[in-house]
Amino acid sequence: MTIEVKVPVLPESVADATIATWHKQPGDPVRRDENLIDLETDKVVLEVPSPTDGVLADVKVAEGDVVTEGQLLGMIEEGAAPAEPAEPAETPAEDAPAEPADEAVAAPYPGGEAKLVDGMSPSARRLAADNAVDATAIEGSGRGGRITREDVAGHMAGGGEAAPAAPAAAAPLPAGDRPVERVKMTRLRQRIAERMIDAQSTAAMLTSFNEVDLGNVMALRAKYKADFQDRHGVKLGFMSFFVKACCEALKKHPIVNASVDDGDIIYHGYCDVGIAVSTERGLMVPVVRDADAMTLAEIEKAIADYAGQARSGSIKLEDLQGGTFTITNGGVFGSLISTPILNMPQSAILGMHAIKQRPMVVDGEIVARPMMYIALTYDHRIVDGQDAVLFLVAVKEALEDPSRLLLNL
């Protein structure tokens, strides 16, 4: 019986998708719920699982094609099995062919402790976790070096050998002694470009700066980080302190937490904070809902979960939508100072930067202190300079005296 594989129901506000990767070719065996195709939208990557066991009989669309909801992608011959190759006579045991990857997957893999990495497809991540595979030893064959389920299965079947990498997506174009390469922008990169242009042409953006002494936060982390991780199962980072400090500052200056909508100002009585995450596909901004009501541990867990999902491509579209304020951390890449661009329709975004030891005057003495420049880009249509400066001062005060966060001061 022939079974059709179609584009699944797409998330709300997503009109179409692009075929990013076919994980199977015509004639390949497939298993029920095994990922066949990665569909790339302008926000997330969706997996299309096989509806049945069988053999992929036909492929109707190619990688790079744009498809819509319900469109036919391919055909599966249900229950069919690939032809068994004729076995040569008197084949020595040591020359016997290796077991197929799918058969190897069915048995537990003695790989020790699972080690997952960024850039794994959701199905690859699940397979590696279920079988305690060390993914750091696997070379990804997907687009941009992404580790696919087939890479993990090949690694397991080959006793540790990773699947061979696929050829580059685009070959260099000859241009004398200076080669040029043309690569089509991904859907996510196109969407990022559109949003950046929209922000530049719509909002009256202005950036104010301040600097923060993070000595007390660093001392607090050093003292309690081991106990914190043992108790909550997550590392105590800087971001949770910044999220809490921003939430307190947003309560004091609600216009910074507002947005413009067709001539009206929308004030939000909650703090849904977007955290910018860099992925191999581009920048994503998962939203931590009601961050003002969360503990430091809850914030750290939410950020870690969302960041992992964003980088593996398994994050849900609804987790990227909404948000009343955004925080971006260029400091992890070494940025000393920058002017972040608004995440429309929000009215403000906070930029974190690298922590550097700098000479500061403390109680009349010059001492070295761990300092960070912070930047607030805001929409000057509704946020006045005074509100922006006072917001940064509130963030600075909360971080320089972390006890204020516990006392809601």
Write the element-wise H/E pattern from the N-terminal end onward. EEEEEEEEHHHHEHHEEEEEEHEEEEHH
How far is it from the N-terminal to the C-terminal residue, by CA? 68 Å
Low-confidence stretches: 82-110, 161-169
Mean pLDDT: 83
Helix % is 25-40%
Content-based structural category: alpha+beta
Number of strands: 19
Rounded radius of gyration (Å)? 26 Å
Given the structure, what is the number of helices?
A: 9
Q: What would the principal axes of the Cα set say about the shape?
A: globular
Characterize the biggest β-sheet. 7 strands, mixed
Strand composition percent: 15-25%
Question: What is the element layout, followed by pairings?
Answer:
Blueprint: E1 2-6, E2 16-22, E3 29-30, E4 35-40, E5 45-49, E6 54-59, E7 66-68, E8 72-78, H1 101-106, H2 122-130, H3 149-157, H4 187-202, E9 205-213, H5 215-232, H6 239-252, E10 259-261, E11 264-266, E12 273-275, E13 277-279, E14 282-284, E15 287-288, H7 296-312, E16 325-329, E17 348-352, E18 356-362, E19 365-379, H8 385-400, H9 403-407
Parallel strand pairs: 12-16, 16-17
Antiparallel strand pairs: 1-8, 2-4, 2-7, 3-6, 4-5, 6-8, 9-19, 10-11, 12-15, 13-14, 17-19, 18-19
Helix pairs in contact: 2-3, 6-7, 6-8
